[in-house]
Amino acid sequence: MVKTCPWKALYFVDGPFISYNDFIEACKTVEKINLYNIPENFDVMEFYQYLKKSKNRASIMIVSHCTKLAETINEILQTESFDFVTPLLYYSGSVSYDYLFKLQNAEAAKYR
Fold first, then answer.
1. Which domain range does residue 55 map to?
2. Distance of CA 88 to CAs 1, 6, 50, 52, Å?
3. pLDDT tens for residues 24-76?
4. Residues 30, 12: Cα–Cα separation, whole Å
5. How many CB atoms lie within 10 A of CB 87?
6. What is the spatial distance between Cα 91 and Cα 71, in angstroms, rounded to a whole number?
7. DSSP labels for 38-50?
8. Domain total for the chain?
9. What is the C-alpha to C-alpha distance for residues 45 and 33, in angstroms, rounded to an integer?
């Protein structure tokens, strides 16, 4: 179940997303999104491509045990400039958390 709060944060409460499209729509109306323990079938790269295309303005953090986040993290690290707020991605063993955190804050500051 997706719930939004008055301070424009998005939380997931005890259950799967209502639908991918509902989730994408919710991303347009909030400032902060935290995703924990995403399932293996959540396509992080597809979601990242959507964020780039839509010029995302939400601060998104994805924490997972899956190492499939590495491909998306590598793409972020190889990009020189952004016109959207980059997601903060972390999985156990990832060494880029501090850099991605600073990058997300710098990009978010442009739009707040």
1. 2-109
2. 22, 22, 15, 14
3. 777 777 788 787 777 777 788 888 888 888 888 888 888 877 767 888 888 89
4. 13
5. 25
6. 12
7. --TTS-HHHHHHH
8. 1
9. 17
User: Which residues, 6 or more positions from 72, have their beta carbon under 8 angstroms from its beta carbon?
Assistant: 44, 45, 48, 87, 89
Alpha-carbon gap, residue 94 to 103, rounded angstroms = 16
Mean pLDDT of 89-94: 75
Q: What is the distance between the alpha carbons of residues 26 and 2, in angstroms, rounded to a whole number?
A: 8
Sign of the C-alpha dihedral computed for residues 24, 25, 26 and 31 taken in this order: positive
CA-nearest of 40, 47, 52, 39 to 86 is 52
Per the listing, tokens 């005890």 go with 14
CA-closest candidate to residue 2, choices 72, 36, 17, 48: 17
C-alpha angle 32/89/21, rounded to 5°? Answer: 55
CB 27 within 8 A of CB 58: yes
